[in-house]
Amino acid sequence: MSDWNGEAIIANTICKGPEVAHQSNLGKYRVSRWRQFVGSYSLPALPAPMFVVHLSGKRDVRFWDRDGWSEATSFPGAATIVPADTQTRWLVDGELDVLTFSLNEPVPSGQRNAFGKMRFAYSDPLGSALAEQILSEFYNDERDEHSAYLEHLMSMLSMHVSSGRSSAGKAAYPTSGISSSRIHTVINAINDDPAKRHSLCDLADLVDLTESHLSRTFAQAMGVSLHAYILKARLDRAKRLLCRTDISMQRIAQMSGFSGASQFARAFRQHGGESPTSYRSRVISAAH
């Protein structure tokens, strides 16, 4: 699968390649955005399963289900798994706008049941939020500086999709007051300025939710608390500054949202197992 044959099949079918695409550094997975006005089309069998997130464009997309077009329809934010070795037919009649996630390695035997059949237009808040965040990085003018962050997002999506744990049925928590777009808004606010004081109150106001609702649903969707996510965003920024600049630890601490060099060093060692100084020396030495 090293030639990403699944994506070549899609490109040949809709007569257009992906608008943007990114392959992970180690070549394990690839994410692509497809935008094209299409009617109905038949997609030949893919060599491996593919995870798809409906981004925008035409609502009410359908697939051929045995003897007719499906009663269920896809919509922006919905996720679909297209199984391997199965020809599929699709009815769009408008703009197709989706993100695809392709694995370049066999699905582990213990996870194959999750990918053995079509799972169409199901609710997957985490998968959708990760896909949207990855997409925003595609169009980031400072993308080179965020390459490590993009790799991390793709790795998270890979683990999520491969686990087969996305909920295709009733959500395990209330969803009436939150959507993947709100999670995406919170993630963007944090990553755009990790050093800012992101209080729970301010973030809840940003997406028009109560503090308790945001705290609970963010943790459910992302698998970590808001506090933990903010801390990781600050440490990720600090790591980039350590690798690419020679500015002082005190200045890095301030630029990353820590009150001082001592707090920064303590948090860095606690989560990374080494001091910021040791990390900087090790990474610089490895680069040479």
UniProtKB/TrEMBL annotation:
<dbReference type="InterPro" id="IPR018060">
    <property type="entry name" value="HTH_AraC"/>
</dbReference>
<dbReference type="Pfam" id="PF12833">
    <property type="entry name" value="HTH_18"/>
</dbReference>
<keyword id="KW-0804">Transcription</keyword>
<keyword id="KW-0805">Transcription regulation</keyword>
<protein>
    <recommendedName>
        <fullName>HTH araC/xylS-type domain-containing protein</fullName>
    </recommendedName>
</protein>
<dbReference type="InterPro" id="IPR009057">
    <property type="entry name" value="Homeodomain-like_sf"/>
</dbReference>
<dbReference type="InterPro" id="IPR018062">
    <property type="entry name" value="HTH_AraC-typ_CS"/>
</dbReference>
<dbReference type="InterPro" id="IPR050204">
    <property type="entry name" value="AraC_XylS_family_regulators"/>
</dbReference>
<dbReference type="GO" id="GO:0043565">
    <property type="term" value="F:sequence-specific DNA binding"/>
</dbReference>
<feature type="domain" description="HTH araC/xylS-type">
    <location>
        <begin position="184"/>
        <end position="282"/>
    </location>
</feature>
<keyword id="KW-0238">DNA-binding</keyword>
<dbReference type="GO" id="GO:0003700">
    <property type="term" value="F:DNA-binding transcription factor activity"/>
</dbReference>
